[in-house]
Amino acid sequence: MIRKNTRTPDAGIERAINRIVEGTTFKGEVTCESNIRIDGKFEGDLNTKGRLVIGPQGEITGTVTCQNCEVEGKIKGKLAVEELLSLKSTAVADGEFYYGQLSIEPGASLSGACHMGNKIKDIKQADNKVARTAEERTA
Description:
This protein is 18% helix and 54% strand. It contains two helices and ten strands. Strands 1, 2, 3, 4, 5, 6, 7, 8, 9 and 10 form a ten-stranded parallel beta sheet that branches. It is globular. The relative contact order is 0.11.
C-alpha cells in the first residue's frame, strides 16, 4: 500500500517556535513565518505572521508586528497586533499599540497610545512606503 504524505510543506511552520532565551541579548531585525518567544532582551524590528510571547523576564524595545501577542514581561515602542493583544498581570507596556482586541489582567501596566481596529494595515503600508523611499535614496 502506498501512503501519500498529507502534510503540507507549511504545516511545520505553524508549530515551530523561534526563541530568544533568558540571558540572551539580541539587536537587529527578525522576520519569521512562525511563532516566537522572547525570554531574553530584544532591541530592533520584529515581524512575525505568528504569535509573539514575551515571557516574564523578556524585554522588547522597538517596532513589532504580529498576529497575536501575549505579554508577561516588558515592551517599549510600537506594537501592531492583527488580532489579540493580551497583557498578563506582570506586563509592563509603554508606547503606541495597535490591535484588533485587547485583554488586560489586573496588575498589568499600560501607558501610551492605544488604537483598536483596522489601522494595522495602514501602518504596514506607511512603513513599506518609508522603506521604499529610503532604498530609493541609497540607490
